[in-house]
Design a protein that fits this description.
Layout: H1 6-19, H2 21-44, H3 55-68, H4 83-102, H5 105-110, H6 112-124, H7 126-138, H8 147-171, E1 176-179, E2 182-185, E3 188-191, H9 194-197, H10 199-213, H11 220-228, H12 230-252, H13 254-293
Helix pairs in contact: 2-6, 3-7, 4-6, 6-7, 8-12, 10-11, 10-12, 12-13
Length: 294
């Protein structure tokens, strides 16, 4: 017969409650049920915004990332209280309540990140939280920001893309001028709309860049450089896209230019950005190799 001390008994009880499968399953089922209305609102409204139509794809990638990290469900519970993760979990719930009551989707949907990290860390310990960090953080890309933020970012991007495209076309010898976000080339005029700003492609490509950079065997600094390089790459890709649109419009007419923009420019943008990201990755890898050889 084994006799447990009072302290050992408390530890064994805490470990049982936190690592027991029914408690973990119940917790994640409750979290999933709590966010069902949130995802319904995202599907019916939030992701219908033109800049966030990629939301369902981000959700599928998140589920795949969780499946890849599913081993954390089987990790034994940590017998320590983990007050930090408990506080993070409670903070997420407060953020969720604030978002729901004030109808702020950014807070309502974004609260899922601290809720998941806090729950996994509290139930399974720090190792589980580390495994869950990237899948949970990846959910940021499916959270639509408020419209005022989109407008705030879109307008400067449109002006910058237009301002950068004009001298490039002039250097190539084309008759081009600009008035704000209106680009004139030959007898044609091109309005740089919200779709030309690059915000939609920037958010989507940041999600791709994060997925590309995270598994790389690089230092945290180089991973950050690789990930953040998507920002200038996406902006440069949009400038090149606008230049091509102007050239096609100049030579083949407005209908051909619109056909290129609506049917082919998205594929071009993604291919250009992905190839540029690979180039940055190769350069970083060469720098790492050169440092080792030195």
């Amino acid at each position: 017969m084994t006799t447990l001390t009072k302290t050992e008994g408390r530890k064994e009880t805490a470990d049982f409650h936190k690592s027991s499968s029914p408690l973990s399953v119940l917790t994640y089922v409750v979290i999933a049920g709590l966010y069902v209305p949130t995802f319904y609102r995202l599907f019916t409204y939030g992701w219908k915004q033109s800049d966030y139509t990629h939301g369902p794809l981000i959700l599928l990638v998140f589920l795949w990332l969780v499946w890849r990290s599913r081993d954390f469900f089987s990790l034994p519970g940590d017998d320590r209280l983990q007050p930090g993760f408990l506080a993070l979990f409670l903070f997420g719930l407060v953020l969720y309540a604030f978002g729901v009551t004030n109808r702020v989707m950014m807070f309502e949907a974004g609260s899922l990140v601290p809720v998941l990290l806090g729950a996994s860390g509290f139930l399974h310990g720090r190792a589980a939280a580390r495994m869950m960090f990237f899948p949970a953080a990846y959910l940021i890309f499916l959270v639509p920001p408020p419209l005022f933020f989109i407008d705030f970012v879109t307008s400067p991007l449109k002006r910058f893309v237009a301002a950068a495209s004009e001298p490039l076309l002039a250097m190539l010898g084309y008759p081009v001028s600009r008035n704000g976000v209106l680009l004139f080339i030959g007898d044609y005029s091109i309005v740089i709309g919200d779709a030309c700003s690059g915000l939609r492609s920037l958010v989507s490509l940041l999600a791709v860049g994060a997925l590309y950079a995270w598994p790389k065997h690089l230092s945290a600094v180089k991973k950050s450089v690789l990930f953040l390089s998507i920002i200038p790459i996406a902006v440069a890709a949009n400038i090149v896209r606008l230049v091509l649109l102007a050239l096609i419009t100049y030579y083949l007419g407005d209908s051909a230019g619109q056909k290129f923009f609506h049917e082919y420019s998205g594929f071009f943008l993604f291919l250009f950005s992905l190839m540029s990201l690979v180039v940055v990755d190769v350069l970083l890898d060469r720098g790492k190799t050169g440092a080792i050889q030195a």
